Amino acid sequence: MKVLAINGSPRKNGNTQVMIDVASKELRKAGIEVEAISLANRDIRPCIACDRCSKKPWDCPIKDDAVAVLKKMVAADGILVGSPVYCGGVTAQLKALFDRSIMPYQGAQFKDKVGGALTVGGAKNGGQELTLIQIDIYFLMFDMIVASAEDGFYGGMATGNDRGDVRKDKEGMDKAKGVGRRMAHLLTR
Q1: Taking residues 105-122, what's their average pLDDT?
Q2: Are 60 and 100 in contact (CB under 8 A)?
Q3: Contact 52, 109 (CB under 8 A)
Q4: Residue 50 CB neighbours (<10 A)
Q5: What span, in angstroms and rounded, lies between the C-alpha atoms of 116 and 114?
Q6: Domain count within the chain
Q7: 178: domain CATH number?
Q8: For all residues of the chain together, what is the average pLDDT?
Q9: 55-70 per-position pLDDT tens digit
Q10: CB-neighbour burial class of residue 51 (10 A; exposed 0-12, middle 13-18, buried 19+)
Q11: pLDDT confidence band for 124 (50 / 70 / 90)
Q12: DSSP 86-129
């Protein structure tokens, strides 16, 4: 079993990465391999709606890192996605990757994969629920199985503004652990 953990933050080693690390630790405890990637150092450009990939699968004229990341997603059994809240939703980097996902969508290549969502906002009620819902809707659009945070919440959400602040949010850290454990349960049953 393998999970691809995608950090959608443009900030390297920030609060989103802390949450991904916490959830990934729970996955590894269950014997699941985790590969972590950051979109901060990837060139992911927006879809240009040329329709080329709908005529010939995986044929995209944009030469960037999106196809390579999407192929890693196809190869994984589960996908853990983390994003800080930007204007009430996911980051532009992550949204661009989501929009470019028409290539695996056409062949139902994410069907039945397990998806887990994590987000961190700079303030309580700072858009975390909306961001989680945006990630969860992405998973549902691809007919994926959505892992909650064990107790019925949308996923793992926390609060932290400055780098590392999220560690002070005990409930948020518990939710990130819960997403990791729930993904592990769904992947190993």
Answers
A1: 94
A2: yes
A3: no
A4: 12
A5: 7
A6: 1
A7: 3.40.50.360
A8: 95
A9: 888 999 999 999 999 9
A10: exposed
A11: confident
A12: BTTB--HHHHHHHHTTHHHHHTTTTTT-EEEEEEEESSTTSSHH
